[in-house]
Design brief:
disordered N terminus, signal, alpha+beta, GmrSD restriction endonucleases C-terminal domain-containing protein, 8 helices, GmrSD_C, about 230 residues, two-stranded antiparallel ribbon, 3-stranded antiparallel sheet, about 10% strand
Length: about 230
């Protein structure tokens, strides 16, 4: 009799959560986010490109100065230049591309509001001030793997290449800093493959070198592409 009463109370409470039952669950899988810029190679092409990269030790970061304030070296040019001359800087272009429900500031290219499904975490970000633009291949890493010998014009082009720019959650971007794939990968495992495809494509297109550890990490990441 006591057991019958307990079962009745359980059902009345609306909890149909017996182990193995079909009731609702409070856990939610991280959504797969396949934000990849136009021009990103598919998995098979990325594997081919990766195999062709020159494997070499990185050069020292001597001379690398990203800061452009007060006469600093500014080796990759002014951030977020309007390299294609369409009147919108690259940051605004990436936000407009990667966000949904975009609202621009009146009479300007700048983004006032929008919604980002962050590929690095799977989270939804609705505050534009908490969104940053990540260089998938960090500029410091470009410098270490070949860009130190380029002209300023080529470095400015690379720094503003839309294929290497992705809108992401700011705090995650900061934690990544200038780490390479053997040191850091997106917390959202569903984005491992897209991230490796973007990274490999940029390294190949700019003829940048990779270290053995970096190459191995990219090879492993590309195996997740299916």
């Amino acid at each position: 009799m006591i057991r019958v009463i307990l079962v009745a109370l359980f059902l009345l409470s609306g909890c149909a959560g017996f182990p193995g039952g079909s009731g609702p669950t409070t856990s939610r899988a991280v959504p797969a986010v396949d934000h990849v810029p136009t021009g990103t190679p598919d998995a098979a092409t990325a594997r081919t490109k990766l195999a062709a990269l020159v494997v070499a030790a990185p050069v020292k970061a001597d001379g690398y100065v990203r800061d452009c304030d007060k006469g600093a070296a500014c080796v990759f040019g002014q951030p977020w230049a309007d390299v294609d001359g369409d009147g919108c800087d690259q940051r605004s272009q990436v936000l407009a591309r990667d966000l949904t429900d975009v609202v621009r500031k009146k009479g300007r290219c700048a983004i006032q509001s929008g919604r980002l499904q962050d590929p690095y975490t799977g989270e939804t970000i609705t505050n534009v001030s908490k969104i940053q633009i990540d260089h998938v291949v960090p500029l410091a890493e470009m410098w270490r793997s070949g860009a130190s010998t380029w002209t300023l014009e080529r470095r400015t082009q690379a720094a503003n290449d839309l294929r290497n720019l992705v809108a992401v959650k700011g705090t995650v971007n900061q934690s990544k800093s200038d780490k390479t794939p053997d040191e850091w990968m997106p917390p959202n495992a569903a984005y491992t493959c897209p991230y490796a495809r973007i990274y490999t494509g940029i390294k190949a297109d700019y003829a940048l070198t990779v270290t053995p550890a970096e190459q191995a990490a990219l090879q492993k990441a590309l195996t997740t592409c299916g």
